[in-house]
Design the sequence.
């Protein structure tokens, strides 16, 4: 990207922020409906001073990371089986597709009944959200592996695990990484849903607490933190893609 | 010693017979060139020898390590040139051949490039080096020099001839170039017909050039006539 266009992605957020600043500075709008940027900033400082900022942020990040990691592991395992073996596909795929068709939040009552309001219910919900994008992308990636490369590998004596590891996995990496990026976004989405329903810590908890006490500074602070976390996750995943997919010959590279 | 022995080999693809009762044998240390019109089944023949395409009839006997240079380079896009050649190596001895081979095919300066950074001819040479790394006993080459300039082509033809003479591989060399076929092959086999079979076999001497061209153009003319006839009916 040329240097002069670097500011373009920042233009819209800056305009939004300026609008917010000007709008609240007129004093026309009561704080309980929209807090000013200054109040949000003060709230964040106060939260940090109490040590509560890290507690809430840490709780959310932890849930996302554990849930995402679990989803990733299971999705890679099942996706590899389904992608490589017809029998596994017949056995698992119809069921998984049916489960996928259920709006994921429909699991919430069951999770709460089974697992209570503790950490595990939230982590499982996050994992459910992250699982399907990874699984679906991985399976279609494996299906799309160039048969010609597999033939080359067979000629040179590769089969079984060696074939999977040396040829199928690298060829599938682009789809797997796309799945992981979307999955991580989904993980944040489901985290908020879980925390809104039942929690005493976390960014979703701040949202609910702010709503119940009509503290728009608290709500907006939580939204800003969520936006930041989402953006950072996305940037991290894209950096991995750039690093590991330098070999691809697509439009982007 | 026989490297490749095909007896009345028949191959069917998508319900259509592509090769019909084709008989061909290649000794170790011998190069057999295969020529024929585009789409006549040359690649199919190589795939059948390599066991990549199932055979519908006949007998196929292939002895020893097989290496295949496909019509397209088929490099692993995530590996650089060196790693692509080393992909075919199974032990340290074979890995030690990678660098010298890359030098011999004229790619010593390109070892760290990715496939997407290679020209067509460079990629073909990587594929050739990959096939030679394991010193195959059966070497199947599908137009390996089609993207090379005349000079490079000469150099690699000589390299290949030398390697075959040393390694005693049975080589099937598919090409569109009549001169190349005669230069490299001890025998030149002409495939034609629908389904294809061996219509002629010519000793690989430069003096046979006219005869080979005649065979190919006769066949081409007959094909065109048959097509016209079919359209008229
Ligand atoms: N997978 C396939 N299914 C059905 N038909 C096929 C398949 N692969 C090849 N064919 C047919 O088999 C015939 C022979 O193809 P082949 O690739 O062997 O030709 P070729 O002699 O190598 O041609 P060229 O010189 O253009 O490379 C063609 O008519 C092609 O349409
Ligand atoms: Mg061909």
Sequence:
């Amino acid at each position: 990207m040329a240097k002069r266009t670097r500011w373009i992605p920042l233009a819209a957020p800056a305009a939004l922020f300026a609008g917010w600043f000007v709008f609240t500075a007129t004093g026309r709008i009561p704080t309980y409906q929209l807090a000013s940027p200054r109040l949000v900033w003060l709230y964040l400082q106060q939260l940090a001073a109490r040590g509560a900022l890290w507690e809430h942020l840490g709780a959310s990040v932890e849930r996302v990371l554990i849930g995402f990691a679990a989803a990733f592991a299971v999705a890679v395992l099942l996706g590899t089986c389904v992608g490589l073996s017809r029998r596994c596909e017949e056995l698992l795929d119809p069921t998984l597709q049916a489960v996928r068709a259920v709006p994921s939040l429909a699991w919430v009552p069951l999770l709460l009944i089974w697992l209570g309001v503790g950490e595990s219910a939230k982590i499982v919900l996050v994992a459910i959200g992250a699982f399907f994008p990874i699984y679906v992308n991985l399976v279609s990636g494996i299906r799309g592996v160039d048969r010609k490369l597999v033939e080359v590998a067979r000629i040179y004596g590769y089969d079984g695990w060696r074939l999977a590891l040396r040829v199928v996995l690298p060829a599938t990496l682009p789809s797997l990484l796309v799945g992981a990026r979307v999955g991580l976004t989904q993980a944040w989405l489901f985290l908020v849903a879980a925390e809104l329903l039942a929690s005493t810590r976390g960014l979703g908890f701040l949202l609910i607490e702010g709503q119940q006490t009509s503290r728009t500074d608290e709500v907006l602070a939580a939204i800003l933190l969520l936006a930041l976390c989402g953006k950072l996750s996305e940037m991290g995943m894209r950096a991995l893609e750039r690093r590991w997919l330098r070999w691809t010959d697509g439009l982007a590279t | 010693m026989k490297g490749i022995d095909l007896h009345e080999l028949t191959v069917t693809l998508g319900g259509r017979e592509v090769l019909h009762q084709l008989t061909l044998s290649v000794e170790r240390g011998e190069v057999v060139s295969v020529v024929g019109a585009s789409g006549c089944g040359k690649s199919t023949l190589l795939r059948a020898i390599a066991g990549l395409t199932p055979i519908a009839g006949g007998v196929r006997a292939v002895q020893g390590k097989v290496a295949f240079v496909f019509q397209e380079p088929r490099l692993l896009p995530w590996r650089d040139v060196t790693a692509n050649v080393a992909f075919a190596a199974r032990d340290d001895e074979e890995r030690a051949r990678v660098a010298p081979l890359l030098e011999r095919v004229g790619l010593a300066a390109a070892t760290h490039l990715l496939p997407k950074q290679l020209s067509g001819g460079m990629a073909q040479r990587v594929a050739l080096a990959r096939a030679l790394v394991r010193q195959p006993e059966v070497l199947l080459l599908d137009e390996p020099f089609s993207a090379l300039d005349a000079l490079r082509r000469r150099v690699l033809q000589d390299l290949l001839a030398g390697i075959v003479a040393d390694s005693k591989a049975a080589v099937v060399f598919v090409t569109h170039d009549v001169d190349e076929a005669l230069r490299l092959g001890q025998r030149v086999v002409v495939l034609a017909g629908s389904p294809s079979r061996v219509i002629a076999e010519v000793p690989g001497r430069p003096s046979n050039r006219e005869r080979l061209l005649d065979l190919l153009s006769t066949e081409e003319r007959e094909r065109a006539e048959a097509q016209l006839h079919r359209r008229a009916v």
User: Anything to note?
Assistant: Chain A is about 80% helix and 0% strand. Chain A has one domain: 56-244. Chain A touches chain B at residues 148-149, 151-157, 166-167, 170-171, 173, 246-249 (CB under 8 Å). The mean pLDDT of chain A is 91.
